[in-house]
Specification:
Length: 348
């Protein structure tokens, strides 16, 4: 991915120059200067109309998608571009792109403004915003170039052909399910009794306290670590371990995410840590964004009281929305209007 590294570095320099000079790009200029060079570096033949189609319509009644990338004669990836500086948080273009991709049987799509690339899993059974899997920001610090390259390389022709991004998403989905269990495992009496039974003279309280100290949790697979396994060769992986988890050496992807922001970062602060540090007070009333009837009271670091029942934060979010999964930090709103995600970022 040496070529992609160079393109990312060049884009970063341009972005800084545009910002310093307050240059405004049109959508077409953004595509020409920032988007197409990335697609080219990812190995897509921009001159081959059987591989890359611009203004693509799957059905004649559809609005066109900026770019459709084809594998084996079928569209494999949709890319919808906006002008540099345009926010990607507008729900309308996202829904439109996801709907077109779904109708065309395309499982992955990208929304970008040249500086930020958001990668969505079209057929994930969750709300539109929750389909966001990875995010890469080309204007991040120089030290993040390798991380950005690893993330965007999942969209390369070769990696898309090998379905590498599908493999990573499958691991991420499994780890999310396991993490939901880990979030409540210290409250599972059967699990506590099993451990106590296999130890020498420890009480249930001893085991429970030990598990809480250990910060038992699952981590989404890191993009860089995934690439090491995929390529079968060692390469340095930069990791930042939070103070509360200095013994933990595993990192989640961008979720990125960033969404999947910060693909190489260690797991951000959990609700339990927020409560322990006094950032999130017991008794605080939270709501789910845009759902005023979803009010729940914080009981402790792992549970809330919702409609008379004490359940986990994630279970509350799913019940309040009707979804099968939720990134609760992006949807739970504090009384002052901040998201839990903002609170934990401020506490880092």
């Amino acid at each position: 991915m040496t070529k992609l590294d160079g393109v990312i570095k060049g884009a970063r320099e341009r972005l800084r120059e545009y910002q310093d000079r307050r240059v405004r790009l049109t959508e077409s200029d953004t595509i020409r200067v920032l988007v197409l060079p990335v697609l080219d570096a990812l190995g897509w033949d921009l001159q081959d109309v059987e591989e890359v189609r611009s203004e693509y319509r799957h059905a004649s009644a559809d609005n066109p998608v900026d770019y459709a990338l084809f594998l084996h004669g079928s569209p494999a990836l949709f890319v919808e571009a906006k002008a540099l500086g345009v926010s990607l948080d507008d729900r309308k273009p996202l829904l439109q792109t996801l709907n077109y991709a779904n109708a065309a049987g395309v499982d992955w799509c990208v929304l970008t403004n040249g500086a930020e690339w958001r990668i969505y899993k079209v057929h994930a059974p969750v709300a539109a915003e929750e389909k966001l899997f990875l995010t890469a920001k080309l204007d991040q610090a120089e030290a993040e170039t390798g991380l950005i390259t690893s993330t965007l390389s999942l969209l390369s022709k070769d990696r898309m052909r090998a379905r590498a991004i599908d493999a990573l998403w499958s691991e991420w989905r499994v780890d999310r399910a396991v993490e939901r269990v880990f979030d409540t495992i210290t409250d599972d009496d059967a699990f506590i009794r099993l451990i106590a039974k296999r130890t020498d003279g420890l009480t249930l309280g001893d085991v429970r306290a030990s598990l809480k100290r250990s910060g038992l949790r699952s981590f989404y697979p890191a993009v860089d670590a995934f690439m090491v396994r995929l390529d079968g060769q060692p390469k340095p992986v930069a990791m930042t371990v939070p103070k509360a988890d200095a013994a933990v050496a595993a990192t989640p992807p961008l979720l990125l995410v960033a969404p999947l922001t910060g693909a190489g970062r260690a797991s951000l602060m959990k609700t339990g840590e927020m409560v322990e540090l006094g950032l999130l007070a017991v008794g605080t009333v939270l709501t789910i964004k845009d759902r005023p009837d979803s009010a729940a009271r914080v009981v402790d670091g792992k549970r809330v009281e919702f409609r008379g029942e004490v359940i986990s934060f994630n279970d509350w979010g799913c019940r309040a929305t009707g979804w099968t999964a939720i990134q609760i930090y992006k949807w739970a709103v504090l009384p002052d209007g901040r998201l839990l995600e903002t609170l934990r970022e401020e506490g880092e």
